[in-house]
Design goal:
four-stranded parallel beta sheet, globular, TRHO_N, tRNA uridine(34) hydroxylase
Length: 332
């Protein structure tokens, strides 16, 4: 069986005509048979796609044919099955959302550190190591001794860092993230805040896990990835986690045995976060996915449209039932 190639890429560049790129880039991806999501903004490109070896090469060649994106780098891994349902090219204000206007990694950025030199850096006493990812990512794996900001989104990182700046007493800051893109912005932000010695892991955790042998590694646990593989380990081998497809957080097989877990609807981490109407929509969505699988179809295209219509209908039905229930309660 042919393995699927998964390519993660990003590149910061001034791209004022990014809207004009959307349609031809999507056409190139569809012609190459790739799936995934690519984001375009005035600051560059970011995303992950999957497909055959030739398909990935075609898309990368197209992206690099755009003058501003000619130096776009990518990282590869493999999957036994296609990890994405469809191909999307989206327009955004930022290719990674931090929400601080003026933060420009194409002008100022931290010092890149190759994976082979990362252990020596983060083992130094004068270096504070910061995991810039979200809390649910950090929970399943991080570098030994790293600080966890406990943020739910990357937008929260600047406020956390400003507070952290007041209390930390080490002159050097080393930051890391999954593939490197969040660190491009977080290190640029740290430099803007006045830190002079700011470092980040070149290629991110994924490059580290690919290049550094497990016996020499300071990484502990799995690395969360934003596709249906959920997590990877050293050598970029498939990790031990599944995912709750309601809240998108990673979960173990043991956690799936808890009473709060319903496939596609909720888990112990999000059980109290959704309304009954939302859970009804999730349940209908899961039903449509299972029906599509029984028909031997990928849940894309017309199935996706049917899923959305069914989910909306289920949510509306649940809403009306809720209203009716409140009316009956008032009558009583």
């Amino acid at each position: 069986m042919t393995q699927i190639v998964v390519a993660a890429l990003y590149h910061f560049a001034k791209l004022p005509h990014y809207k004009d790129i959307q349609a031809p880039l999507l056409a190139a991806c569809e012609a190459a048979g790739t799936r995934g999501t690519l984001l375009l903004a005035t600051e560059g490109i970011n995303g992950t796609i999957a497909g055959t070896r030739s398909g990935i090469d075609e898309v990368l060649q197209f992206i690099r044919s755009i003058p501003e994106l000619k130096d776009t780098e990518h990282k590869e891994s493999h999957a036994e099955e296609m990890p994405f349902l469809r191909m999307k090219v989206r327009l955004k204000n930022e290719i990674v959302t931090m929400g601080v206007p003026g933060t420009d990694p194409s002008n100022i950025v931290g010092t890149y550190v190759d994976p082979e030199n990362w252990n020596d850096l983060i083992s130094r006493d004068d270096v504070v190591v910061i995991d810039t990812r979200n809390d649910y990512e950090v929970q399943i794996g991080t570098f030994k001794g790293a600080v966890n900001p406990k943020t739910e989104t990357f937008r929260e990182f600047p406020a956390w860092f400003k507070e952290f700046q007041r209390t930390h007493n080490k002159p050097k800051v080393a930051m890391f993230c999954t593939g490197g893109i969040r660190c491009e912005k977080s290190t640029a932000f740290a430099k803007d805040m006045g830190f002079e010695e700011v470092f980040h892991l070149k290629g991110g955790i994924l490059k580290y896990l690919e290049n550094v042998p497990e016996d020499n590694s300071l990484w502990e646990g799995d690395c969360f990835v934003f596709d249906q593989r959920v997590s990877v380990k050293h050598g970029l081998e498939l990790g031990d986690y599944d995912q709750c497809f309601a809240c998108r957080r990673p979960i173990t097989e043991e956690e799936k045995q808890r009473p709060e877990y319903t496939k596609g609807v909720s888990c112990h981490q999000c059980y109290d976060e959704y309304t009954p109407e939302k859970k009804a929509a999730f349940m209908e969505r899961q039903k449509q996915i299972e029906l599509a699988k029984k028909r031997g179809k990928s849940h894309v295209g017309q199935d996706l449209k049917a899923e959305k219509e069914a989910a909306r209908a289920a949510a509306e039905e649940a809403r009306l039932k809720s209203i009716a229930g409140k009316e009956e309660a008032r009558k009583d």
